[in-house]
Amino acid sequence: MEKTKESKNITLLAILFLLSVYGAPAIAVGLTSLVEKVPSFLSHILFGVPVCVAAVSIIYAKQHWANIDRITLLRCSVLVKYLMIPFFVGCVLICLMFLLFLFTPLVFMVFAAPVAIIYILGIGWLYMVCGSSFSVAYGLKARGEEAHSEVFGVLVIISQFLFVIDVIAVMILTLKEKKSN
Questions:
Q1: Cα(82)–Cα(77) distance, integer angstroms
Q2: Burial of 144 (0-12, 13-18, 19+ CB in 10 A)
Q3: Whole-angstrom Cα distance, residue 38 to residue 42?
Q4: Which is more confidently placed, 146 or 106?
């Protein structure tokens, strides 16, 4: 099967999303630590770059829906979900570090650590939901082509909003797609 231009572009958008997920926080932290005059809101705005890339990919997929095949969408979702695992492991390790800070004798850490944990988990969940756009598009495309049952498609789409279960759902989709081919 020959890949269309739209299929190549949606794959490039998935790669751009991954680069923005790993790059935006690194640039934000590096920018605020290297340059003293950078306003703090600018570093928080950089955390929104992956959300913007995900929105662009959703709009692109909607406009070119007929020309993007479901296998490409599955490959994009596998690429995003598997390559996001180190990011989430890093988020969990940072949250564990802040959890340990709760037990330090410094009073301000009792208040700062829970806020930091909630912030990091919120960013992680937001990026997970943004990365799920490819999996949701695959579920809708597969259901439209009647490759999977409607109940299975709905369960896959719902699972994309839960940590760990989203990766397991993509693994199941990959195995199910291999069996059908």
A1: 8
A2: exposed
A3: 7
A4: 146
